[in-house]
Fold:
Amino acid sequence: VVFFPNGDPNFIYTFIRMPIGTDQVVTDSVTRVVEDRVMQALGENNPLVESVISNVAIGASENPFDQGLQASPHLGKVTVAFVKFAERNGQSTRVYLDKIRQAVQGIKGAEISVSQEQNGPPTGKPINIEISAEDFAILTKSADRLKRYLDSLQIPGVEELKSDFQSDKPEIVIKIDREKANREGISTGQIGRTLRTAIYGWEVSKFRDENDDYPIQLRVKREQRNNINELMNIPITYRDMAMGGAVRQVPLSAIASVEYSNSYAGIRRIDQKRVITLSSNVLTDYNANAVVADIQKRLANFPTPDGVEIRMTGEQEDQQETADFLLIAFGAAFALIFMILVAQFNSTSKPLIILAEIVFSLIGVLIGFSLFKMEISIVMSGVGVMALAGIVVRNGILLVEFSDLLIKQGVEAKEAVAEAAKTRMTPVILTAMAATLGLIPLAVGLNIDFVKMFTELNPHIFFGGDNQAFWGPLSWTMIFGLIFGTFLTLVVVPVMYLMVYRLKQRVFSRRTREVVVPDGETGPAPVAG
Structure:
């Protein structure tokens, strides 16, 4: 079972994360090493590869919601773009996922993850463990212990667990000597404004031309901004009130000192609780749901301190929400169909017979996917089931309605059901065959280039591709359900109809059985002793 179906990768992304504060030049050098290894894994002059592009700082975030222009000098990304599926001559690009994963291992100081493009809406990673607690010290210790615990188990299918909490963000602290500053009459706000102006600039005016306005920023030169010693020599201008308000200047180093330390890169909160997330991709040929289930079993043996909550989120959470929504939608559709059928047949037993066909067709879907060892997509197979329900119900309605018509004309129930099945066999089978044959090209991914077929007399027929990966689960769901549902319509529905009809006759005959007494009154039949 998968959330959204994934076909062969069109893009493979290799994300590089260096410690926060790493210079962009260092990140670039590591990215080049990764790029060389990726090229070796792909092979020289690989006809499947269209391009290999590297990004550093900008557009290198692994978060799909954070692909803006904000620079992150510690991040890098190598993107491999493959040629279109039609030009691959049936060769799969999935094998390169594992090849690249193996090739980029062992680079010290860098966290590296490899993934393909994601189908469907953006979701979290397949493995996403959220640890939350009120006490920050307990939270960080628990997250670190849990990561080491899961790493020691070496659970099959897990690429590499990574934590989103980073406590090694370097920072420079300008520590103000308040006694000296007060002696000179300099406030901390004045010192802060001077530093902000020197580093980030301050708009002192605007330059106007015929088309637009351009702000004029005042700040120190780049060489000074990048040198802490130069910044510490920035003059702080102030009025010395002890000397009659005379304007004076003192270097920043006279009233402040520099300290180097590490801080937190950021602390996430969910529902007002601090949260640390451990996440990982799932290796090729492993089912994400099976790997997550294995992790959940191991988590049951992990001692959790009081006040600490551990839960699986990310793709699994989105998958559960989607499954719940589809279940509610299917239940609502089931109820609406039932009410319409009750109004049509003025009966509750006949709608139940027709709706039972939906349940049995679902069994056919599961049998079909099991026999052919296909993956069931939560989203696409769920939509296919709802579409399937409308078709199988229609066939059942035709059979039940025709049986009712023959019985009203005086035909015996058994003969009426047999005649209805015989008469409606052709339209039911033709309907199922038309729908099945129409879905097979989508299910197998039949592609025809109609433009080239008429211009170059070359239809360029091939099978597979992204459309087949995406629409295949929906198509096969309907195909398996239709084949099984057709058998049910012609065999099981008539049998159920006849059984219910005879059961009703027995019940009603017992309730209405009466005898005639001599004075003309009626009463219940005597019970044999």
Observations:
- The longest strand covers residues 49-56.
- The two ends are 63 Å apart (CA to CA).
- Residues 64 and 122 are 7 Å apart (CA to CA).
- The chain is about 50% helix and 20% strand.
